[in-house]
Design a protein that fits this description.
heterodimer; A: alpha/beta; 2-enoyl-CoA Hydratase, Chain A, domain 1; globular; B: 320 residues; alpha/beta
Chain lengths: 277, 320
């Protein structure tokens, strides 16, 4: 083995991060104290990277404490295509459910922000990449219909690879279904806030997520239609620095604003005041 | 470019033999008889092959270079067609064509993906892969249809929306999403037909119709079989396997409740007899438009909403 390789691997070992206490930032690669990140809404204090957070953490950051009530938790995925690659879709669902302790990649429900009622939907990226199949589509539709009926603003926090391949064409149709639901909400003149977290792609961006009255993104989140790898393979070119990051979308006029997690609730509260006045 | 598929080869061989014999048929009754036998045999072989087409073979048919495309159908079934260009925002996307014309005494707006046939045309049409301006042109024409209360016919035939830097910069996702929401509430009847390849969101962006039809050998899928194979098996050469598992044929979509009608194709596929194909399709579109004619706008929109609301398969049990 060449000396420089050997040296590198030794260095890697010496700086191995002990599980639990310290965390290496995915973005700036700095090693930071885990407690510090947790106090900071899971945002890297060195580079402002927004780490992925769980649905529970997301809800407690956005809503008044204890105000959330989940809806339609009994919706669960089926396997209409009897889909199988190396693993059966049914088994993938089981694994995802065991891992996340949730039946599907999205939770919907009601809660309050500074005592103003809202309908909230949150994607869980750890559940099959937050992909949208029949259940996710149905939850978004129900959330939108109830929001329209009660005249409560709808907030959806997306974090998704797009449509779920394992439900085939039915997943594609969820794009039309959720967009139609957003249309009904718009006709009722009830506001829809779409919040884009890292990453949001494909069939989710190309449907309800880009249809918010207000579209907010988290800093440095990757957001786009096609994934970087597909684009690179198609055009045989390297993609520019910062391509498909929130800041890139803001520059190109695709989103209203970029907000740090910590400022999300207070800004939503301001917007709610405007829309409910 | 080779203009037949591998599984069409036996038929092509028959056809070539028949062509060679034809000059002698007039003078030699024996050869005339021989041609008749060959023609009959060719029909049998054709029927046999088409009776057990695999999803991958259908994919190849759906992408067949000679398959009739949007402009072909327009030429067959639309009188006084005037093509209209541009999105009034950025450019004119040649991967989507649209315009106004008369369909069986009925003024209509027609919009469709256009793949192109020659190499030069394919490049000009970007292989039928639209940029945002294509979708925005389509939306502009749909809004025009609504303003002047004319029904909309859309032809779907695309590998998908183009994945490129410019497309992302100009909001490919937003352009598709915008079409979905606007089509869901457009106050005129919409009939959408998948004539070839229905590739994902780029296809759906023209597909939120009151009626969705598929030609017998067309496909419609959330992802291309190549893309699916690359993700599942890291090998796009396994596309034929992916075509099986994705359930993307007209029959599959009918049984999943996604489409309303399968439009039969001439034996051997649409490309074997484009005029006949156009005639069959014209009748199917007419009968669907006739059913939508009498509906009040509110009922039309409610039915369209319910149609898409119903899509999906899931379980539900009561959770305390």
């Amino acid at each position: 083995m060449a000396w420089f390789k050997k040296d590198k691997s030794a260095e890697g070992k010496r700086f191995k991060i002990p599980e639990g206490l310290w965390l290496k930032c995915d973005s700036c690669k700095e090693v930071v104290y885990r407690k510090e990140i947790e106090k900071n809404a899971k945002v890297c204090p060195k580079c402002n990277y927004h780490f992925p957070i769980s649905i529970g953490e997301r809800i407690s950051l956005m809503l008044d404490e204890g105000s959330f009530k989940e809806w339609d938790a009994g919706l669960s995925p089926m396997d209409p295509l009897n889909f199988k690659d190396s693993v059966r879709y049914r088994d993938r669902i089981k694994t995802a459910q065991d891992k996340t302790r949730q039946r599907e990649a999205m939770v919907i429900g009601e809660g309050t922000i500074n005592h103003l009622p809202v309908v909230l939907g949150v994607f869980n990226f750890s559940y099959m990449g937050g992909s949208m199949g029949s259940v996710v589509g149905e939850k978004i539709l129900r959330a939108a219909e109830k929001a329209a009926g009660r005249r409560w603003p709808l907030i959806i926090v997306s974090s998704s690879g797009g449509a779920r391949m394992q439900e085939g064409i039915l997943s594609l149709m969820q794009m039309a279904k959720t967009s139609a639901a957003v249309a009904r909400l718009a006709e009722a003149r009830v506001p829809f806030f779409s919040i884009l977290a890292d990453p949001t792609f494909g069939g989710v961006t190309a449907s309800f997520a880009m249809l918010g009255d207000i579209i907010i993104a988290e800093p440095k989140a990757l957001i786009g239609f096609a994934g970087a790898r597909v684009i690179e393979q198609t055009i045989k070119q390297q993609l520019p620095e910062g391509f498909q990051r929130s800041e890139f979308l803001l520059d190109h006029g695709m989103i209203d604003l970029i907000l740090e997690r910590k400022k999300l609730k207070q800004t939503l509260a301001k917007l709610l005041t405007f829309f409910s006045a | 470019m080779k203009d037949h598929l591998d599984f069409e080869k036996p038929i092509v061989e028959f056809e070539e033999k028949i062509e060679k014999l034809k000059p002698f048929a007039k003078t030699d009754p024996l050869i005339h008889r021989e041609i008749e036998v060959l023609e009959k045999k060719a029909q049998e072989v054709l029927a046999e092959i088409f009776a057990k087409l695999t999803p991958w073979q259908r994919t190849q048919l759906a992408r067949h270079p000679n398959r009739p495309n949007t402009l072909d159908y327009i030429a067959f079934m639309i009188h006084d067609f005037v093509e209209l260009h541009g999105d009034r925002l950025y450019g004119d996307d040649h991967a989507i064509v649209g315009g106004v014309g008369i369909f069986r005494n009925r003024p209509v707006v027609i919009i469709g993906h256009q793949k192109g046939r020659s190499v030069k045309e394919r490049i000009d049409r970007n292989f039928g892969m639209p940029h945002p301006e294509g979708y925005r042109k389509a939306l502009r024409l749909m809004r025009q249809a609504e303003k002047f209360m004319k029904p909309v016919i859309t032809f779907i035939d695309t590998p998908g929306a183009y994945p490129g830097i410019g497309a992302e910069e100009r909001g490919q996702a937003e352009a598709i999403a915008r079409n979905l929401i606007e089509m869901s509430r457009l106050a005129v009847p919409i009939v959408s037909i998948v004539i070839g390849e229905g590739g994902s969101g780029g296809a759906l962006a023209l597909g939120v119709g009151d009626r969705i039809l598929m030609l017998e050998h067309s496909i419609y899928s959330v992802i291309s079989p190549e893309g699916c194979a690359a993700i599942l098996w890291n090998d796009s050469a396994k596309a034929p396997d992916a075509a099986d598992v994705l359930k993307m044929t007209a029959k599959d979509l009918r049984s999943l409740g996604v489409i309303d009608e399968i439009v039969p194709e001439p034996v051997g596929g649409a490309h074997k007899d484009p005029p006949q194909m156009a005639e069959i399709l014209e009748k199917a579109i007419e009968s669907q438009l006739a059913k939508l004619d009498g509906l009040k706008t509110d009922d039309l929109l409610e039915q369209r909403y319910q149609k898409f609301k119903k899509m999906g398969v899931f379980g539900e049990d009561l959770v305390p």
